[in-house]
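Q: Convert this sequence to structure tokens.
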Amino acid sequence: MRFTTARAGRIAALALAGCLAALPVRAADQAREAVGLFVQSCLKHVEDPADLRAWIAATPQLRRFAPEQAQAFLDGKKGDVWSAENKAGLFALVVFADYSCSVLAQQASADQVSLVFSEYVRRKGLPLNKIGDKRDYVRGIDEREEIWRTSGTDFPYEVVVTTSKSPRADAQAILTTLPNR
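A:
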């Protein structure tokens, strides 16, 4: 995933939904919140979209974006978007019609997000292996993309962790599950 002007629209959509600027918090808190939301939603329910929808419905902190606001996150694809703002910052949960699922964090330390996610995978013994880790500069903004793929499971999927250290990035962390990869 590239950080593009479309991503700027996504973050702007958070503001349009009535979200306020995040209170100053430690970078580790933002990373834990982003990874935590991703783990509870996209990762936990990667095999069963109906379970994911039930979890979303049972989570009152999530506020669904209006369809016109959600389009900024969907890039013309079908899906739904929820806002998940808390004291750590602004987060969005995006569920696409193809069952891929993303969590976006407006602000989160790139290094901390990577560390928290890799530690979670290790601690839980998940069947995910890191198969890619590349860095790039897009319009002068740093970007790191880590790709994790399942091994030895009946349900293949990938996890893509895209981060940026730049305060000019549209989102500093995007964590995505891609089922059946």
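The CA atoms of residues 42 and 101 lie 5 Å apart.
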